[in-house]
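lol ok so funny story. i was supposed to be doing the assay writeup but got distracted and ended up predicting the structure for this chain instead. priorities right. anyway since i did it might as well share w the group, maybe its usefull for someone
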Amino acid sequence: MFRPFELFVGLRYTGAKRRNHFISFISATSVLGIVLGVTALIVVISVMNGFQDELRKRILGMTAHASVTQYGEQLLDWQTVADKVRDETRVLASAPYIEAESMLSAQPAVSGAIVRGVRPELEDQVTDIRQHVVQGSFDALEPGSFGIVLGRELADSLGVGVGDSLMLITSNVAVTPVGALLRERKFTVVGIFQVGMFEYDRGTAFIELSDAQRLFRMGEAVTGLRLKLDDMFAAPWIARDLAIRVGPDYWVSDWTRRHANFFRAVQTERTVMFVILSLIVAVAAFNIVSTLVMVVTDKQADIAILRTLGASPMSIMGVFIVQGTLIGVVGTIFGTFFGVLLALNVETIVPWIEGMLGQQFMPADVYYISELPSRLEWLDVAKIAGMSFSLSLLATFYPAWRASRTQPAEALRYE
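and the output, tada:
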């Protein structure tokens, strides 16, 4: 705890005009470095939070919170399993699905895809695929109509649009008088969706569930059940409870398992960026060491006089800790202010800069996310500000300790 003497002298030294202008320049550089470092950290972490949320939103637009499958290839008695699942209060909805790899052909183009058989009215309860349909209608998937909804990139690669026909070729073999042939069926494109992720827009197609059962010869069976939960972040724990409820013959998986590597990579990148940008603050904080060492050298006579008047070594140390800490506090406050201001207005500032320069930083034809999303987390702001202040405070100890070791007789010998 600093006494009024240390605070007064420390503030006095900080506010006084120095004879050595280079020391003043180094002090200003330290403050500016801390401001830039803290600002950059807050903005970058907020943008990465926004990207993570946007990616999670787009992935969960196509992937349910959890799914139930049976060990093997087919879920035979899926209605019974659906009844058991619905007894769990945290499960909001369930929908059966069939998923298989197939080939789509629209001469002369051919492309592989993951074909999902769904019931539109039930699928709408577990995912928001309907919201991403940009042409046609998802409701046009009716039993016996053999309609198909394609991703935007997949439709473009095949050169088809709404109303066009294509052939869906499965891996199932049909025995005919001329030999064994792959099963195929003509489908009509009734809709096109665009999620904004290449994985889905280029490689996914939807057909009606009963059409998929006939095409893949699955009878009344399905691949599994897709579930929507009341809290997607609690999916691992809910999935564990569901596994106990449905029994050992079934496998319950959640979205965190299916996309674990992807989100782990995003989190790792966020951590690495935090460490890299923290170096800016660290360099600025260690500039405080240079500043205070030069101040201590410049104030040798003043320190000696204060010691002669009765100031203790701890008091002298406190004086210079106050001076260095003030630099860190000022830099942290202004850096936090500008960082929060920019993070809250990134989505407005970036388009304005693009308009001024006449150039788009993230073209829509190259990047699916053409705007910089931002989500400010006050906990992140607190951590960054705390880290900045701690580094600044740490940087003051060595120069302050050197000042406290000053011997009055030695310092005044040549004065």
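The CA atoms of residues 78 and 268 lie 38 Å apart. The longest strand covers residues 91-106.
back to the writeup now i swear
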